[in-house]
Structure formats: structure tokens, C-alpha cells
Amino acid sequence: MQNGVSFGLPYRRPRIAKPEDLPHLGEISALGFKESDVFRYARPKGDEFFQDAVASFTNWFRSQMLDKRALILVTEDWQPNEPDDYDPSFPLTGTAKEGEGKRVVVGVSAWYLPQESRRVGKFVSPAADVPDEVPSEDRDLCKERLDIFRKVKDEAECKYFKDIGPKNYEIDPRKSIRPTIICNKIVVHPAFQRLGHATAMLRWIQQLCNCDCLKQGVISPRAVEPLFRKVGYETIGEMQVPDDGDVRGFTQHVMWCHWIPAKVPV
User: Fold this and answer.
1) InterPro entries under this entry (predicted)?
2) Is the bond preceding 135 in cis, omega lying within 30 degrees of 0?
């Protein structure tokens, strides 16, 4: 039992992220998102200036740790004893057996609680424990395209998930998904994918939502849509990121999952 939610997987059980996890979260995200549409669109020089991307993701997770409405989950796995120092960019080809090697953070997901949630403020890290921002020159970024993506995403979230923003949207009442906990990011180190880490984090959140009668929403990258469908999400709309010059835009689906009443209130 952790923060009112139980979960049965042994060493891959999700836990709340700690400030000392931050360096791993940035590197795991930069590695895990490298092949995504968003990374290609907004970080055209991500390969050349990879550490700038790492710093950017690290600073984003830092801001989430200080946000009272944010919830960051991580999962761990066993890494072989070699190399001695954990480096998420090390080209691992597999994991060690349980109990051999050392446990390292290999997956992370970030969620945003609705304002009315009773969990607001329960997962925030003490400011004194959170390290300073990592310097970054953002040389990997195309800031204009990142702004375009953020604007389109904010509009989609307002349309489908939030009680703020434009009111002229016509949404089928049966698809009203408020209050909603929103998945902002979910990523697993490439060497540890398809081992149940992402599913474990989604199941953890579902248990929390079942306890609190919250629906779950996500604007999903294409690569992980099957993952969300597997745990019960369904598509209710789409978000279109426009072309920018010679750079192609892309479409992402808006998905949601209903809560199931918990048998035992927490």
C-alpha cells in the first residue's frame, strides 16, 4: 500500500518519484521519446544536442515535483552489475535476474490531477529537497514548433478534459470526461520496454481513480495507443498538429477511460 493505493507486482511496483530520481527521468525521457512524432517535430537537433534534450526534460519533471496538482510515478528494474555506474544511455540488451545487480529507475509517467481531487498537494516534493534547474541552451529545440504543439495540445485538453477554455465545443454528453486526471507523459527506457512497466503505471493510476471516482484522459502518441487500449481506454477525438514549412505535422488521438467503483473506499 502506497499513498492509499495497493499494487501487486513485485519489484516493478510503481512508486512516487523522489527528487534524487530527477537525473534518470530526464535521460529516460530523452531516450524513450527520440522516435516520437513530437520529438521529431519540436526537437529537430535532438541527436546533435542530446544533452540539451535531457536537461529540458529534467527541468520539466523538476517543475512537476513542485506542482501541487502533479503526480509522478516511476518503476524500477534490475540492472546488471556492469557497468558500475548506472547510465540510462548505456546500450543494455536486457535485464538482470531479480535480486541480481541493482535496482534502477527505468520508467516514468506524469499525471495532472483535477482541481477538485482530494489528492491535490499529497504528492508534491518539499522545495528544499528539489535540486536547482539544470543549465540548458535548448540547442535541440525549434521553439516556434514547440509553441505550436503546446497551443494545439492546450486547446485539445480544454475541449475534452477541462472546465475552462472555449465553450463553443459540442461534446456528446455521454463522452463528458470531467473530472479527469490527465496523463502528460509516459515513457520507459528502450532497453526495458515490453516488460510491463508502462502497464504497471497505468494500472496504479486506475486503482487511484477507482478509489476517487476520477476518469483518465490522454492525448496519446501513436506508438503507445495499443497500450492505452489494452487497459481500457477508448478514442473520443483527435488532435491535429499542423505542418510547418517542410516539416510534416501529425495527428494524435484523444482517449479516455472511465473509473470503476472501488469495493473498499480508501
Assistant:
1) Acyl_CoA_acyltransferase (IPR016181)
2) no
What is the rounded CA–CA span in Å between residue 161 and residue 150?
Answer: 15
- Report how far residue 50's alpha carbon sits from residue 34's, in angstroms, rounded to the nearest whole number: 9
CB 189 within 8 A of CB 28: yes
- Residue 198's identity, in one-letter code, is A
Closest CA to 125 of 20, 254, 230, 7: 20
pLDDT in tens, 10-51: 456 899 999 999 999 999 999 999 999 999 999 999 999 999
| Residue at 2 is within a domain | no
| Alpha carbon distances (Å) from 4 to 32, 224, 253, 264 | 29, 27, 31, 11
Q: How many other C-beta atoms can be found within 10 angstroms of the C-beta atom of residue 195? A: 17
CA-CA distances (angstroms) from residue 147 to 136, 137, 139, 142? 18, 17, 15, 9
Q: Is the dihedral of CA 16, 21, 26, 30 positive or negative?
A: negative
CB-based contact 233:257 (threshold 8 Å): yes
254-to-34, 65, 86, 181, 193 alpha-carbon distances in Å: 21, 25, 36, 13, 23
Q: Which of 105, 136, 84, 92 is nearest to 24 (CA)?
A: 105
Assigned domain for 155 exists: yes
3 domain-assigned:
no
Residue 195 lies in a domain: yes
- pTM comes to 0.84
CATH number at residue 157: 3.40.630.30
In angstroms, rounded to a whole number, what is the distance separating the alpha carbons of residues 122 and 264?
A: 20
- For residue 238, the Cα-to-chain-centroid distance in whole angstroms is 19
Residue 177's domain comprises 15-257
